[in-house]
Amino acid sequence: MKNRSIIGLTVALVVAITGVVAPTFADTSGSWVPQLPNQNDPSFHSVTFEDPLPMQFNFSLLQATDNNSMFVCKSTSDPVCANMAFKYLSILKACQNPTDVDCISSVSAIDSSGNSQAGTFSKYTVVNHVNSYPADQKLGIAAGDVPSIWSIPSAPHASGSDYAVIAGESGYINPKDVRDPVTNNSSEFLNVSLVPVVLKDFGKANSTLNSWNGPILDGIYYDACTEFQQTATRMNANCAHVNGDGCYLPTNAQGMCYAEEAMTPGQRFNVQLRLSHEPNGWIHGRMTDPNISITHESSGPVDLSITAGSVQVPLVYQGADWDTLPPSLQDFWVQCMNHGDHCGQVLAGPGDHSDYPVVGQTPAGNAQLNLQGQPFSFGPLALQAMSAIAPLVGNKANTMTTSWNFRTLTNQEMNGADKCFTSTPGIKGIVSTNSTTYSQGPPVLSNGSLNYQVSSTHYMPDGTTPFKGTYNLVMRSDVARCLYGFSSAPISASISVISADGSNDVATTVAGEKDGWLSLSANNFEFSAPVIEVKLSQAGSAPKKVTITCVKGKSSKSVSGVSPVCPSGYKRK
């Protein structure tokens, strides 16, 4: 892609996007790439919600930072990285011995009867990758390797039974920190993806590298970091990675690469990790009906097990000239350019627009720019964009992708979360949904309810089949008690789905408490932008009444109660 600048997060794969309205794709693989005609119009703006995997790197990387310099390190004791802070992305190995930590201990498929069928570790995508590095248990940095391939015969996909597991820890550690870096590492994040794959021969072709990346290599699959040589005049590592079209995970073998395949919607899997310490924070998942188990071994390691089903997520694209966009979408772009760290990735189109991050901060500036956005899927800006885009695309998805992954939330996403979610160590809970966009962070406690908003198109790609939503909240019982000030007595819960017009959507809901976890779910609700409300109560505690305002034309009335609902014909204000 020529003459394009990037603002915001740049770890996502940059995909060429063109055109005004993307066609419908029947496949459910993650390789969806719209190819459309009007990309180069002078004021063309497009938004793509493509739901990238939480960790897209296919090799580990340990870097040291010092002022404006960054170095690739062979280990934390590498002399070139001495006395610096470390930035790391550690892809975890498969556990081989009972004493191994920070590794994948098992991967299984769960059949319809709930029986577990174990998968077997097969191989690593790359043997002895040049960027692999050993663990530093004192700093809490896991050994970094490459994705592992597992065979799960009981869960075949269209091209076999191989699955890639990309489980990684990423973060930033300053060894000079006087605190215990392991227990105080609020910048460490866990990402886990299970992806169906098939090994294919993509053949050989010529590749080009920018001059600072090193010599051109035969074939199309390589890591620039593999060829990088640290010298006094070449200090900053550029670790770009080049894939062939459709190549997902490169291998050592020339031209051989793992391509991503479609996952069966609803197929349940279990992934177990054996970690040196329990991750902190809140988990977001692209999965359904998750069950979580955390076991602290007497010898120190922590066993984390998550069982869940895969979900289909709508992918949505919209593009048009600036002066044809509705005010709400124009406002999204202005807000996006003023708050790039909350927006995602923006590409500037053809021409000399090096100042586009500043020019794009006003409506008049946007009218002079060609911009293509790949927003985050979470947060107020994402919800605003989705609600504005839906009617412009006929309220239908362009295609669907099927996913099974989870990740701990970033500090940005946890900003503003209730202290009950942040004041103590360990995992506090999981929220999962199949909605294209969703709220930032954990659910928000408001007027006695834990609220969470989602927004997607109303229809599947065929334009007639309603897209049915899923929502799961799994929360530690002690966190729920902290939020509500409850005692140790049992908790009761109810869950409802409030549509954009204020009506209570008809959905299948389930709530229960077991083994220290409170689990709630809502399924089969419809879109565009409902709010899921969870209300908790406890025997002996007086339920808190709330008052809502209901409107019908010019008339309005107040309704009070524990779970007030607007009368027939009225909608919630």
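The record above closes out task 2.4. Task 2.5 opens with a second protein, given below.
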Amino acid sequence: MAEDVARVFDGFDYACNKYPDRAAIIYLGEVFTYTRLKELINRFASGISELGVKPGDRAILYIGNSPQWVIAYLGLQKIGAIPVPVSPIYTPYEVSYMAENSRAETIICGDTNFGYALDVMGKAKVVKRIIWSNMADLLPWWKRVIGEIFDRVPEGKVKKGKDIYWFKDLLKSSSKPPEVEVKDTDIAHILYTGGTTGLPKGIPHTHRFVVTGFKDIVSRYSRHIEEAKHVFVFAGPLFHMFWQDMFFGTIIYRGNTAVLLPRGVGTDPILDSIQRYKATLFAGVPALYRMLLENDRFDMYDLSSLKYCWSAGDVLPLEIYRRWKEKVGVPIHEVYGSTEMVVYSVTDLEHPDPAPPYVGRAMPSRLFKVVDPDTLEPVPVDTPGELLVSCDDMPPGYIDRPEETKKSFITLEGRVWFRTGDYVKMDSEGNIYFVDRAADTIKYKAYRVSAAEVEAVLQDHPAVLAACVVGVPDPAVGERIKAFVVLKEDVRGVSAQDLIRWCRERLAPYKVPHYIEFRDALPKSKVGKLLRRELRDEERRRLMKKELKA
């Protein structure tokens, strides 16, 4: 990779110049070479500029894995605009807040969530335009026809009107977008992470910060992941920072190929793609590895081409690690990080057995400090403590959230550090071992769910007096979400299903509680602070009793 890469799209341009005819993306069988993808990105940049999008403007990417996501993300950056990637399954309630908070004037969505985008446009007055696309829009006509005949391409209803634009129409614009000076200190994107006060937090990253993270990946893996030699079956969501790191750091910046899979594909298409394309690289969250291993047809697929596999987003169970290594013949390596600070550490690819709880060593640009969470004093080697992370180009904090910023970004000895809330041990050689995480964040499958966000939605219900949300351990998904609810004194006839329905209308599906238990009161400290840990411990004791009886 060229050393002069300073902005996110510079690494892509490097690969385009060096490997113009190599496949950058394979999507639903269609090949997008680096040259073809670059032309589409430039045309999109021209088209969206003609709509009035200017340098510094923000645009929400409310769209699933597809070439359109990549085209929009890099096309916006080319003209100095700022992509705001969000989950395509977020509700209008959530996206409206993010649009207002990020001041996004544009939403780029799929036709399947167009109705939600239209709802957001009505709620968030800052939004001026919607650009929509169908997942098969960039496929040849005959593939689209076959997909429609066999009902394999989901389609949503789109309402034509003022300020509604078709993604494909923008690609008719010039392949020479306006020249805009984009500096490495400009914002590259805004990502959202779960908030502890009930609302997601927007974190802006500069091009320099993001590129440093990608370069860390390239540097750490350079001896093993060569340029233009690898195929990565890519099943993770591009709106998530981990997957962006892997997409750019191992694929785009190295001139390699991504077999990009749409959201929600089953385990058979993933296994078939590894076999069909002789994939050398693969990544997934622990829940996905479990589902793959439990597929009855797992042993029928030839996965011998795989060289390196990664896991992130949750604690990898040792049982899953061992089963995968035994069946596939390669270990699962860890990538450890957060939305705020991107990748902290990775396990070395030459490590013969990087089993959990080992999560590797610090990336070249990251500094670690393990401290007592109460005093912020360093703890002795091999002693559990909270992990603090720093680097030379720290994010400025959360958008319009000064209190949250003050809690998470602290200054020690003249340097700004990010409090991860995770508890780790670090040995004398700098190896990190994961111990535990911030208790008020629930890990369901690959998702991080803020207990406070779910509580805030429940407490908005007119019948609810108080609510407390905890994670209940479940080996299949990590944790399930359980809410303890106190109803107002005069309320009658409100059921758990009523509250779950209320949450479904206001939260992404993965944030909706699985269980609701009604209580007369919730445990609180002497100063009135909600004691989640008591309810969490209560649930764990209940589970232990069940296991003993079994």
